[in-house]
Amino acid sequence: MPFGYLFPVALAAVGTLFALRPVPFSRPLGRTSYYFGLAANELPFAALLWMLLFPTALAITDGDIDSAGGWAIVAVAAVTAIGLAVIAYRGLGERGRIERAMTEGLGADWRAAIDADLGAGLRRRRPWARILLLPIVKRRLDVRRVANLSYGDAGRRNLLDLYHHRSRPQGAPVMIHLHGGGYSGGHKNSQSLPLLYHLAGRGWVCISANYRLRPQAQHPDHLIDLKKIIAWVREHAHEYGADPSTVFVAGSSAGGHMAALAALTQNDPAFQPGFEDADTTVTGAIYLNGWYGTYFGQGPESSPLAHITPDAPPFLVAHGDLDPQVPAADARHFADRLRQTSAAPVVYAELRGGNHAFDLYHSVRFEAVVDAIEGFTAWVRTRERRAVAGQPGPRPTGLPLIPDAAVNAAQRRRTRPE
User: Fold this and answer.
1) Is residue 298 part of a domain?
2) CA geometry: angle 364, 358, 332, nearest 5 deg
3) pLDDT value for 412
4) Exposure check for the chain: N or C terminus, fewer CB within 10 A?
């Protein structure tokens, strides 16, 4: 039995099986299914190349398959390749599904409605070189990471990393991202890095931050930390070329839960102890594979659903329909509730075959999401810019040009004294 050939094929086969049929976290093998299936689900091309094709070619060259056991492994590799092809096909269709979600949320002419200087750089082609050859390499030579800037008094849990283009363009919008980990683990510089590096390469200032974790911290401590980050951006981000009046918040899993809470509780003094007068308004929110319920059994006020109001900012929500940790039905419910109440646009993209933490790699799926986020933020920035100038801006069917509360918030950010 050629065990050197068996090992990568078996690993790919198990990962493919769990990618196609993930086991919910609540059941036995749930965590095993998740960890084995995630990479296969998001990196089917790499799995096909490095765990099936290359080992099979090497086994043939070495004469390792000239036995019943060797041919049995080849058969497993062939079936696994079919499964990976199905996974890849689902990922390749994501761009079209996301485009339809953008059209539903922003209107049929959403691309044409974006101001030329904001939409000129919107990507049209997939970055195949990265997807096929460097899916796990996040860094870019044109982006500088400024690590471990302090925004609070909780030591390393109150540190952030800042990403900016090496040319340091002025007037850059800001994207703040919070990592996942169930509020009990995780760290900055780990999730959504393809998004942060892409936007920084486009001239944004991006931030990935630590925050206090359980059990030492409890709700609303994590949310207070995010509010401190927003306040830090308003005070310091201009030093790196940012326009601190344009701030988007984003998060993955627990970080998405926190970002949504921050977007829905702007300037609420209850969550800003000691810095009640700081401006914590945001331009929009990005909710990736998030948690939508309450915080470890606390009251309903610990859920974003409890804070939805007509003046909520624009939201883009992306969630996988095979997420084993948070059912897609929860994401749909949140998006529906938000649409029913908020006067701002809501884009909901349900990702076919998407797992939890789909934002870790340069995958076909996440690159499509990155493109959508760039387009969504450009559309929102166009809308706000024109509203502040008193000009008509883009709007989805049935929505006002921009809510009065959002106009006032934008004006406050531009007139707030330093």
Assistant:
1) yes
2) 105
3) 52
4) C
Tokens of 302: 């610990």
Whether 290 contacts 253, CB under 8 Å:
yes
Q: What are phi and psi of 287, to 5 degrees?
A: -115, 105
**How is residue 95 written in tokens?**
């761009």
Residues 339 and 199 in one domain: yes
- Domain range for 66 is 3-92
CA 286/CA 279 separation, integer angstroms: 19
Q: Which of 22-26, 288-292, 402-406 has the lowest mean pLDDT?
A: 402-406
- The H-assigned helical ranges of 184-279 are 193-201, 221-236, 254-264
CB atoms within 10 A of CB 399: 19
Residue 179 falls in the annotated catalytic set? no
β-pair type (284-288, 205-209): unpaired
Instruction: Point out the catalytic residue in the list 257, 307, 356, 362.
Output: 356
Does residue 48 surpass a pLDDT of 90? Answer: yes
78, 221: one domain = no
**Are 180 and 251 in contact, with CB atoms under 8 Å apart?**
yes
Whether residue 310 sits in one domain with residue 191: yes
Rounded CA separation 282/340 (Å):
21
Q: How confident is the model at residue 401 (pLDDT cuts 50, 70, 90)?
A: very low
Q: What is the DSSP letter of 248?
A: E
Contact 329, 360 (CB under 8 A): no
Judge whether 117 counts as a catalytic residue. no
How many domains would you assign to the chain?
Answer: 2
Residue type for position 92? L
> CB-based contacts of 94: which residues, under 8 Å, 6+ apart?
351, 352, 354, 364, 365, 368, 369
Nearest to 13 by CA among 109, 112, 69, 87: 87
Residue type, 169: P
| Separation between Cα atoms, residue 171 and residue 229, nearest integer Å | 19
Rounded Cα gap, residues 384 and 355, in angstroms: 33
> One of 64, 279, 323, 371 is an active-site residue; which one?
323
Annotated catalytic residue, options 33, 208, 245, 253: 253
Per the annotation, the verdict on 323 as an active-site residue is yes
Burial 17-55 (b: 16+ CB within 10 A, else e): bbbbebbeeeeeebeebbebbbbbbbbbbbbbeebbeeb
